[in-house]
Amino acid sequence: MRRENNMSQEELARKVFIGRSTLSDYEREKTDINFDNLEKIANACGYEIYFINKKNPHKNLTSKNINRQEI
After folding, report:
1. What is the pLDDT of residue 49?
2. Which of 6, 10, 16, 42 meets the CB 3.0–4.6 Å disulfide criterion with 47?
3. Does the pTM exceed 0.70?
């Protein structure tokens, strides 16, 4: 997602208030990303995430398909 939007790790990390090294760890799959940070990163890159849980019967959808390699 970051590369599709021509953003550096530093730029995206600043936008979502996380460390650049944390973002790097997410991209290299060294660290699992929590939902809050995934949502912040997705939103900063023009994606919307809809989450399904027991309280929300809607389908789990994204405005663009997201997989771990796209972070």
Report:
1. 81
2. 42
3. no
Half-sphere exposure of 54 (CA within 13 A, CB side): 0
Q: What is the mean pLDDT of residues 20-40?
A: 94
What residue type is assigned to position 46 of the chain? G
User: 49 in helix, strand or coil?
Assistant: strand
Residues 6+ apart with CB under 8 A from 69: none
Domain containing residue 51: CATH number? 1.10.260.40
Query: What is each CA distance from 33 to 12, 18, 28, 55, 61, in whole angstroms?
Result: 15, 11, 11, 23, 18
Backbone angles phi, psi at 55, to 5 degrees: -85, -15
Question: How many domains are there within the chain?
Answer: 1
